[in-house]
Amino acid sequence: MSESISYKNNQLHVEGIGCQSLVERFGSPLYVYSKSQLVNNWQQFQRHWPSPHKLCYAVKANSNLAVLQVLAHQGAGFDIVSGGELQRVLAAGGKPQSIVFSGVAKSKDEIILALETGIGCFNVESEAELERIQDIAAAMNKQAPVSLRVNPDVDAKTHPYIATGMKANKFGIGMAQSKAVFKKAAQLTNIRLIGADCHIGSQIMTPEPFLDAAKRMFELLVDLKKDGIELTHLDLGGGFGVSYQNETPLDKAQYLTELVEMAKDFPNVTLMLEPGRAIAANAGVLLTSVEYIKPSEDKRFVLVDAGMNDMLRPSLYQAWHDIVPVKEKSDEAPQISDIVGPVCETGDFLGHARHLNVAQDDILAVKHAGAYGFTMASNYNSRGRPAEVMVSGNDARLVRERENFDDLIRGEHLLDKDYI
Ligand code: LLP
């Protein structure tokens, strides 16, 4: 349990506010974030990451404007993967120069927007993308700052859907091929080649794959220097694992210290990291109300009002999230239950075979829901997405309204009568 989300007097609190009262005030299901936990998580990284090295928060983990605003206030940089994320960062007060733009298939419009904005770096993933950026930058009479994403071919030992750094993945340029692309980039007139980057995957629990990738990337810098290409920026991506179910979390302090040590041989190189989950996951919970209890022949189903459309991780990755009652009931025997949502899919579940003591109308909290929770939510089954609330001390602010029917059909058009 995070420090800021814990039981006080048998009631689950986010900082100073009871979860029950949050649901009474803002409705259910509800995403709730702790501002102090976000800030603490950010500062923990910074503590071991001396200037000039930089941190860019991976916006995809949680892109709520208020979350971005809190991090921008901490001086965060941002790692984005779309024009939408770029505009969110700007709307939240992030500085254009502090933005790196990742992603395998950047569109022309996204590249134009990023060049107009003056972002800090394009993390380029293919030769074709490099050529497209060169053409657009030339037409706009601009210089595009570029890093090339290299695929270091390291096994991150994580869920196959979130491993990105092996040859078989669609991401980055293969190590062997990359030298030719660096040489080409160095010669393009509207490309300012500044760096190299990699990202080997997400939810990685040990430092070895990261250090292995870092070593290969530093070797690449040495090789490139021999060819007259001197890079000043090395971005090692995100992927720092968090503990969802009593796993030993990655020792960030040790890893960051080792990286800074490695970088000492490269005094002109600024390191960059792109943490997402490690900043947001334990700062958020998803509160959900029990609609019905349904005993069946061999199972007990707890039907809740949050489904896979609100929280996709269990269905998509068979991911474990702790699910706890917001009122602790220590004196009764728990029953083994499947916690399932209202969506018409057998794969719609939040947790299987959980030992829980719950009754109709109780409220449950899905923990570690601050990262890849709301951002992966959808309107499947025409369900409005939940509201989001940010708590600071004893103060709770609505930072995103619950979607209503008007929101669901915004932009849709009925056909004219003669067209039906
Ligand atoms: N940088 C790049 C280029 C990335 O692709 C990602 C995540 C990150 C940084 C941030 O990684 P983090 O520090 O959050 O692990 N939806 C999945 C996670 C997908 C991650 C995709 N890329 C999940 O819910 O587990």
From TrEMBL:
GO molecular function, one term: pyridoxal phosphate binding
SUPFAM superfamilies hit by this protein: Alanine racemase C-terminal domain-like, PLP-binding barrel
UniProt cross-references to InterPro entries, sorted A to Z: Ala_racemase/Decarboxylase_C, DAP_deCOOHase_LysA, De-COase2_C, De-COase2_CS, De-COase2_N, De-COase2_pyr-phos_BS, Orn/DAP/Arg_de-COase, PLP-binding_barrel
Cofactor(s), names only, from the UniProt record: pyridoxal 5'-phosphate
Modification sites for N6-(pyridoxal phosphate)lysine: 60
Keyword Lyase annotated: yes
Top-rank EC class of the record's enzyme: lyase
Residues binding substrate: 277, 313, 317, 345, 372
E.C. number: 4.1.1.20
Gene3D superfamilies reported for this sequence: Alanine racemase, Lyase, Ornithine Decarboxylase, Chain A, domain 1
Active site residues according to the UniProt entry: 344 (proton donor)
GO biological process: lysine biosynthetic process via diaminopimelate
Pathway(s) per entry: Amino-acid biosynthesis; L-lysine biosynthesis via DAP pathway; L-lysine from DL-2,6-diaminopimelate: step 1/1
Subunit structure: Homodimer.
Annotated protein name in UniProt: Diaminopimelate decarboxylase
Organism encoding this protein: Idiomarina zobellii
